[in-house]
Amino acid sequence: MPSWSSPSPDREESDVEVLRRRFVEAARRAEIIALLNRAGSEEELGDALTSELCEAFDAEFAFLLTLGHGGLQLLGSAGLTPEQVPTILEDTLLVSALAAKGATTHLGRDLFRIAAESAAIARAGEAVLCVARLRPERFDEAERALLEAVGESAGHALARVRLARERDDLFQRLEQTNLGIAAALAAALEAKDYYTADHARSIADLAVHVGVRMGMTIAEVRDLRLGAIFHDIGKIAVPDAILNKPGTLTREEFEAVKEHTIVGEQILAPVPFLDGVRRIVRHDHERWDGTGYPDGLRGEAIPLGSRIVFVVDAFHAMTSDRPYRKGMPEAEAVRELRAGAGSQFDPRVVEAFVRVLRRRRHSPSAASPAAQRI
After folding, report:
1. What angle do CA 123, 98, 162 make, to 5 degrees?
2. Rounded Cα–Cα distance for residues 179 and 183 (Å)
3. Nearest CA among 350, 352, 313 for reference residue 334
4. d(Cα 232, Cα 163) in Å, to the nearest integer?
5. Mean of all residue pLDDT scores within the chain
6. Angle at 22 between CA 19 and CA 28, to 5 degrees
7. CB 19 within 8 A of CB 136
8. ∠210-203-300 over CA atoms, to 5°?
9. pTM
10. Domains plus CATH for the chain?
């Protein structure tokens, strides 16, 4: 990185030397501003900036503070020990410099009680920058201009990272609120039909493992988990007499059951963070060959999450005991899934699910690191 020092007062600078110094100064300023623009947090901003300032000004100390309702706070420093930080925050020199316009320079003995003999301070908004040297060498006009420019950029960068942090905090609170809404929906489903709710919770774990095996991202697997939990939420609108009927459904009754996919999507629609989830819910009865419902989607046009839920849902339904029938053995259910691969089910999903079942059978407590983070 370029560095520069002030010209000696006892000689005139040549035109070439002036141009060179200005070029190096501009390069240094651009480099520091680029560093500020890359900072992602207050801590990163403070630590990176102060190290750069020590190098740029050939100084032993640099610190970045913020001025807020609670007074001065240190965001980052270079050259200071932890024991010196309280003396910096309480120093009258620093407090008096805050009211000044532009950068101020100071000469003296033991400035800030850290043995410094020269210092420059600049404030821009809530950002306060200070650079200090152990030698009694006054900061010249060019150095003061650089510190002021960097201070302005530091103030803007500080505002940016704080806004980003507030945004992230807001998103986190919204997500917690949305998860509370999701929990309320799950409770409503359980009140309607305990089997449906228990069935949904049971397939969610298997669906997550299949999604991870098939290379889904963390966000996609989160949607998949919720899609598995809510895939039958629309059955709240299906009459109990139809939902719990032990015999074959009439055509009219089956049409009523088919509506649960659309109703489920409508229930989830007012919750923005469930956009990806409601697509899974709407299409989890679409068939690979295009003969499913409600939209007759075919093959890859069906969301992957829906295809996964469809396979896991069918397996769990076949192997579960109901009041009107006994569940079939897992091996038989797997044969049924493979028989339906390519027509009813996505063949890749079936094979991924079978591998998940095999792994869980050999190691029931096994779960991939990615799945454990969901």
Report:
1. 45
2. 6
3. 350
4. 40
5. 82
6. 140
7. no
8. 45
9. 0.55
10. 15-165 (3.30.450.40), 193-372 (1.10.3210.10)
